[in-house]
Design brief:
Helix content: 40-55%
Number of helices: 16
Catalytic activity: (R)-mevalonate + 2 NAD(+) + CoA = (3S)-3-hydroxy-3-methylglutaryl-CoA + 2 NADH + 2 H(+)
Distance between the termini: 52 Å
CATH architecture of the largest domain: Alpha-Beta Complex
Family: Belongs to the HMG-CoA reductase family.
CATH topology of the largest domain: 3-hydroxy-3-methylglutaryl-coenzyme A Reductase, Chain A, domain 2
Order of helices and strands: HHHEEHEEHHHEEHEEHHHEEHHHHH
Strand order of the largest sheet: 3-8-10-9
Bound molecules: NADPH dihydro-nicotinamide-adenine-dinucleotide phosphate
CATH class of the largest domain: Alpha Beta
Largest sheet: 4 strands, antiparallel
CATH superfamily of the largest domain: 3-hydroxy-3-methylglutaryl-coenzyme A Reductase, Chain A, domain 2
Organism: Ligilactobacillus murinus
Shape: globular
Number of domains: 4
Radius of gyration: 26 Å
GO molecular function: hydroxymethylglutaryl-CoA reductase (NADH) activity; hydroxymethylglutaryl-CoA reductase (NADPH) activity
Pathway: Metabolic intermediate metabolism; (R)-mevalonate degradation; (S)-3-hydroxy-3-methylglutaryl-CoA from (R)-mevalonate: step 1/1
Structural class: alpha+beta
Strand content: 15-25%
Number of strands: 10
């Protein structure tokens, strides 16, 4: 595209000027991108072709008691009602003692994929015999992690096809998510294999399917806690359990069930400065581990209790990536009173389960729209141009008219402005 040659080499002001020159934006629009209150140097160092800071709201989820400790949880999301629902689900669980977490191990997996293999069984044996050497090479490539008590722990060899082998390296990455660390280790091992075993390496990279970094959270809720008006808690619990079974049987429902879980998970992962694409990819892959795409959480009624469980891979870092450089992320870690990455992983999983409980509870009782309505009407009011002081009047007008379309919202806004004008 004309004018965008070597765009990455230009400074930010020049990049913005080009947008005006090329008639992509007006000068006024470009001026609106320059907020003097924002530190724009950070973005320029983090990504390429940077033009401005995109803002997503951050709020706090309340009521999260996990392993006996109560947390204030920052969530970053653009979707109305996510934080309200997360807090509501957690409040139900809090009344029943809170969430319990389980983390067995925290190992990241990286792959070196060897192609054009002639005798896969023979090569697999040779690779296994080289475990000690490969672990040594991996650790030599990133010695600081060994000093921190981590490092390469195991290799696994998988024959994927007669001509393709994956050599998996398992690494204790301590407090990091570990992508860069693993990639450095893998490339060192790949280079050795290339020369020592005369293999053709296709690629070497971390796997986001972090099946050795699983987190499980559970909760037990007396069914009586679920009672809503005339609807008995026992009946609601049974319906939640059936909705959970449905998400195990039907991928159409499972996808939406898991989207709800990820509403909570992504929002905390973003607030904590972690890579949410990595978490999304791993979570959805884990949802297919039994051969078809299923709900990540399960709910069962046992005796007089509703028992919820969520297990998924959650390789999160308390250091590295943007964690160490974005001031708001550091502040969020302070709000969470984080001790380490494992604590973050259990918090994120608990939010996923709390979010899921709130969604299922709403779905099997009032339906999802009732709770969403007021927040969505607020967004609608803003979308048609209501100022902060006009929003609640527009929402009230829409509720009174039982309407939720933009034409009615605009009409109400005009009426409010007309009334204000007359009063002046
Ligand atoms: P970094 O490389 O940014 O940071 C990890 C580094 O932090 C370590 O190498 C270590 O360096 C330092 N560190 C300080 N204290 C500790 C500690 N207690 N435990 C462990 N490390 C510590 O990040 P990661 O390697 O974690 O990679 C995450 C980033 O990689 C994310 O930004 C992600 O988006 C990106 N990424 C993701 C990919 C994927 O998911 N497929 C692929 C490629 C990149 P030192 O010892 O030298 O101090």
């Amino acid at each position: 595209m004309n004018g965008f040659n070597k765009y990455y080499q230009k400074d930010r002001q020049t990049r913005l000027d080009i947008l005006v020159q090329q008639k992509k934006l007006t000068q006024a629009e470009v001026d609106s991108l320059i907020d003097p209150k924002l530190d724009l140097t950070l973005g320029d160092t983090m990504i390429e072709n940077f033009i401005t800071q995109y803002q997503i709201p951050e709020g706090l989820a309340l009521n999260y008691v996990i392993d006996g400790k109560e947390y204030l949880i920052p969530m970053v999301t653009e979707e109305p009602s996510v934080i309200a629902a997360a807090s509501h689900g957690a409040a139900i669980v809090k009344r029943s003692g809170g969430f319990t977490s389980e983390l067995k191990e925290r190992l990241m997996i990286g792959q070196i994929v060897i192609e054009q293999v002639k005798d896969a069984t023979k090569l697999a044996q040779e690779l296994e015999q080289k475990q000690a050497k490969l672990l040594q090479l991996a650790n030599e490539a990133h010695p600081s992690i060994v000093c921190r008590g981590g490092g390469a722990r195991e290799i696994k060899v998988r024959i994927l096809a007669p001509d393709l082998i994956s050599l998996d390296l398992l690494v204790d990455v301590k407090e990091a998510m570990g992508a860069n660390m693993l990639n450095t280790m893998l490339e060192a091992c790949a280079s050795y294999l290339r020369t020592e075993l005369d293999t053709e390496i296709l690629l070497s990279i971390l796997s986001n399917y972090a099946t050795r970094c699983l987190v499980k959270v559970t909760c037990e809720i007396p069914v009586s806690e679920l009672t809503k008006g005339e609807l008995a808690g026992e009946k609601i619990a049974q319906k939640i359990a059936t909705a959970s079974r449905l998400a195990q049987l039907d991928p159409y429902r499972a996808t939406t069930h898991n989207k709800g879980i990820m509403n909570g998970i992504d929002a905390v992962v973003i607030a904590s400065g972690n890579d949410w694409r990595a978490i999304e990819a791993g979570a959805h892959a884990y949802a297919t581990r039994n051969g078809s795409y299923q709900g990540l959480s399960t709910w069962q009624v046992k005796g007089d209790k509703l028992i919820g469980e969520l297990e998924l891979p959650l390789p999160l870092g308390s250091v590295g990536g943007s964690v160490s450089i974005v001031p708001l992320v550091k502040l969020n870690h302070r709000l969470l009173e984080l001790q380490d990455a494992k604590e973050l992983e259990k918090i994120v999983a608990a939010v996923g389960l709390g979010q899921n409980l709130a969604a299922l509870y709403a779905l099997v009782t009032d339906g999802i729209q009732k709770g969403h309505m007021k927040l969505q009407l607020k967004s609608l009011a803003v979308a048609v141009g209501a100022s902060p002081s006009e929003v609640s009047a527009v929402v009230a007008g829409l509720l009174a008219k039982k309407a939720r379309d933009s034409a009615t919202a605009k009409q109400i806004l005009e009426e409010i402005r007309g009334n204000d004008h007359e009063q002046k």
